[in-house]
Amino acid sequence: NRRFADGEVVMGRWPGSVLYYEVQVTSYDDASHLYTVKYKDGTELALKASDIRSQSSFKNRKSQSSSSSPSRRSSSRSRSRSPGRPAKGRRRSSSQSRERKDDKKKTIQETGLVLMKPSENNTKSYNGEPESTEKNDASCITLEQKLKSDLELERMHDHYSLRPRKEEKKKEEIYSEKKIFETVKIIEKASSKTKELEFGGRIGTFALIFFMPATVFYLLLMCKQDDPSLMNFPPPLPALESLWETRVFGVYLLWFFLQALFYLLPIGKVVEGLPLSSGKKLQYRINGFHAFVLTAAVLGALSYFQFELHYLYDHFMQFAVSAAAFSMGLSIYLYIRSLKAPEEELAPSGNSGHFIYDFFTGHELNPRIGSFDLKYFCELRPGLIGWVVINLAMLLAEMKIHNLSMPSLAMVLVNSFQLLYVVDALWNEEAILTTMDITHDGFGFMLAFGDLVWVPFVYSLQAFYLVGHPTPISWPVAAAITLLNCFGYFIFRSANSQKNKFRRNPADPSLAYLKFIPTATGKGLLVTGWWGFVRHPNYLGDIIMALAWSLPCGFNHILPYFYVIYFICLLVHREARDEHHCKQKYGLAWERYCQRVPYRIFPYIY
């Protein structure tokens, strides 16, 4: 059905007008049935077949329009110059300008259509060669029924750009897509902001930045007193210069980077964590237990070369200050680097937009240097293994100070119970990947100080207390305390194992006896087993073990039981936090679960 061949010179209608100009056909699209034509100034447009006419049809009308007055032809010729060509010709006089203004006020006259008479050198003009003004003027004749006013033509020229339609349409599509993408990013950024602030908001987190270190130093100073009663407040403060020693800080740095070296060793399996909000899964090397064994070998070598480990006890306060200073420096680094992190890598709980709050809770979810995951490393290695090393140093210090050939039974129980807890955590290292610390909380001051200072120096409080306040206990009492610890550990380990197995593979045959409530997220809520007994059975096991760790210290002072009180408060806070998070995440399914399992931590109590 093609009417015009490539290279043929025809008359093309200017889009949106009734004006026809000489054009050259360059191509034809069979799918859209559009002709691509080229004007004399080089402009290319896509026209329909109905907008193109042969030159012969205009030549027949030329004789019919020749009877029109020359003045009218010259007037129309001056007003209908092609918008596709640059303006040429003489400068108008002031009288002509006045006549033009008067013509605008007149009614639309019946005139002829402007026809571009084909010149003898059409091919040259389409190749960009100049054409004389005289030929251009001679090629214009009037042949239009109703000519629009110049104002309408100017508006039309502004509306229709001289750029090709395809190019304009493509640019409009790209611009539209960019606007949609930017709008979606703005909405996602606004929705990812932390709306509900914990820990008392900005004021509470600001206070905790000072309160947490003060609490650690207060507990350590109290344990050094002969009478560590709470009534003896405040304890005598040491001189500030005695709290810092560069050598101690160097030893702490050596310890930290030694554990980092063990973490980077290519031993142990590599597993994937839970999917992030972007759907990405990070990889983690599971070699915490290997690092523990290598640390034990290093300590054995130091002992062989007669390095006295009770050096830790003698400089315990200085080590705590060094760890606190290091954790503060690490927290500042973490916050600065988080400012350049992409939006999808920020922590859901630490993206409030408030400096203090985000600094405390952690702005970035999984800060990494290459494949080195800072949060995952600090969660288990320096602090948790350091806890065991400090307990061992306290045991050796007790033997040296009290001239004992063997450590006391109470010290053995504390070391054994807490060693079991640490070894279990390192042996089941993969389970930590499903905890809120990894999947939800950012890495900021709260976790940095907690992992590097609070865990090793507060969790070892019972062993530190027993060095200066020995407590004799009988074997039957020791057996009862051991049974209590084993019972708490059994609840803690079996409950966590059920949860971790179910999260990773709900179709595991070993979990076929468990029942669950399906949720809209695709996950299930266990309503049988330990998780059908109370909502947080792992917290119940934690509290029972914490009590067993404190009982060997006797009942002379409440200070050794600070850990139990703290642990209860911490777990109640975490439980309330988990309740709120799960209610938002699971909706009606969580309400059904709460009806099936009414007790949170303590059965028949809370």
UniProtKB/TrEMBL annotation:
Pathway involvement of the protein, from the record: Steroid biosynthesis; cholesterol biosynthesis
Keyword Magnesium: no
SMART domains per UniProt: TUDOR (SM00333)
Comp. bias regions, Low complexity: 54-73
PROSITE patterns found in the cross-reference section: STEROL_REDUCT_1, STEROL_REDUCT_2
Family: Belongs to the ERG4/ERG24 family.
Protein name: Delta(14)-sterol reductase LBR
Upper lineage: Eukaryota, Metazoa, Chordata, Craniata, Vertebrata
